[in-house]
Write a structure and sequence with these properties.
This protein is of the alpha+beta class. The protein has helices spanning 2-19, 34-38, 48-65, 72-94, 98-105; strands spanning 24-30, 110-116, 123-125. The protein has five helices and three strands, in the order αβααααββ. Helix 3 crosses helix 4.
Length: 127
């Protein structure tokens, strides 16, 4: 159930910020992400599609900005753009938690969006 998953995520985030006093929260996406590629496929699995709903807007945003890919290279670039946009999207989701937004506004916590390229080993900032 998506609501249960979000509730658990909030509890973990609250524990980290309030009790562990974490200073940095990192959302890190990566290249060749199977979940992002699965956004283009129909699935009969009852649970994975619910999990993927958190990333659908990233696909929609990217597809609205680029032309339909024709070559394999263009398809791979599209996946990379969606992977990176998903990092930004998940940061937006984090900021819907008032506790985290308050901690960031008070400069007690920084949120970082990173992207790891598995092929090159390069870790880059995307947000």
């Amino acid at each position: 159930n998506r609501i249960v998953s979000l509730h658990i995520a909030f509890e973990v985030l609250e524990y980290a910020v309030v009790h562990l006093k974490v200073k940095d929260v990192v959302i890190c996406g990566h290249s060749n992400c199977g979940a992002i590629r699965a956004l283009d496929k129909e699935s009969t699995d009852a649970y994975i599609p619910l999990w993927l709903n958190n990333a659908r807007d990233a696909k929609t945003r990217v597809d609205a900005k680029i032309k339909q890919p024709e070559t394999q290279l263009e398809k791979e670039e599209r996946f990379k753009l969606i992977e990176q946009e998903n990092v930004r999207l998940q940061i937006e989701h984090l900021f819907t938690y008032p506790l985290l937004k308050k901690a960031v506004d008070e400069k007690r916590v920084d949120v970082h969006g990173l992207y790891y390229d598995l092929g090159t080993g390069v870790l880059s900032r995307v947000a």
